[in-house]
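hey so u asked for the seq, here:
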Amino acid sequence: MPKQALSGSSESMSTAGPAIAIFFALTGTLMATSVFNVGNSGIAFFYLVFLLPLIRLVFPGRSSIRNKPDPRSRAMTIVIGITITALLATTVLQMIILTLRDSGSEVIHLVSRLSFLLYFLIAQRYLQAEMLTETFLWLRRFLIAVCAYGVYQLPAKLLGLPLFLDWLRNNRSFDTYSYDTAGWIGLVRATSIYAEPSQATIPILVLFILNLNIKSSAFSKVVGWVALILFTIMTFSRTAWLAVVVETLSWLLFRSQKFSRIVLIRRAPVLTATLLLFLISPIWGFIEAGDNVDLSAQERSGGIVLGMQMIKDAPLLGLGWNSFGDAAVRYSTVAPSVSSSVDFGFIHNMLVSYVQQAGLSGLFLAALPFILLVCWSTAPSWITYATVASFLVTAELGDIGYSSLTWLWLALLINSGFVEQHAQPNWGEVISWRPAYKGRMSESPHSAS
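ran it, structure tokens below
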């Protein structure tokens, strides 16, 4: 195993190190619940993450965090800074030029988006060395617990057993919190601690990779895989199913050392191909639009069609944050391919949704996760591109950007080439992957594996 790690990582972690790792793992796992949330939904313990830089300023000598950001961190900070500036400028212009129904909602949604970007920067800065390793391991433990509760949830619902974690599902982001039967299958679906099954897609994808790449006891392996597989099936979410299949195929494909080496040394063409695929994929919405598909498909395809109509009318600034619901009422009368019987609350496509709301700055925000992954991930290529492929699928059918776990996972993969690979004495777990880049954080990553 590689022994390289952060400069100074041989020193003991500060006493707050394990607590910070657990906190980040919790903020990722408990995304969009009544405890860790953004905006005005639930109790926003999520915002405690912004105290970490203040603690660092007060106690500068009591941490193993490197004093100066490395070139990769500086480059990502510049990209995030440009994104934040563009979003702020767009929102200000929208409030001046457009007639917004609720300017307060506009500000809240902007703050939420900016919070995720700052959260990513803080996670990428603070999760290093042993703290990075601890976060990976605790994240797996929490996600196994989430999936296990989802497996328990359906029989508990049918048998009248206590649903002791269901209070986490009520984050006030949705109108109903019943176990909806979806628009394509007449069955109650498992959601675990999330408001709806599709929100569990990112946790499922992350746990899949962690189960593959963290060595643990036989019991832990069995529990991890059984909980993941059963929960994925019981969500009855076609988004989750498709994303897991794509992630599996991508993971197998990129296990090839030759193919892996090609994508590592040709990141620019890979990024171009990824973004082109991301841009053209919404065309499926026009193919599926109409009344001859199930209700769920009508909502997804119809939302894309209406969203594209709105983008044609406001390509630069968009129509404002959280504006789709009201605008859809007007636009549905002029889009003959959209079913008039469907109530469109939001767009089930990340690219179309962001551009509809924020124009060109929304376009860059939507593409940002893929830019960060392809350009700066130090994880093995089979992990990086399995994530890229599965995130592409999920983004086509939902919103990966409004999830703290997405941004935490990006930060972890960007730093993961420098993870300390040692067993935890109390758990017997060890991260088993070899990094794509072997070196120190103070150096610029090479493209050879």
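Residues 129-159 form the longest helix (31 residues). The CA atoms of residues 313 and 319 lie 9 Å apart.
lmk if thats what u needed
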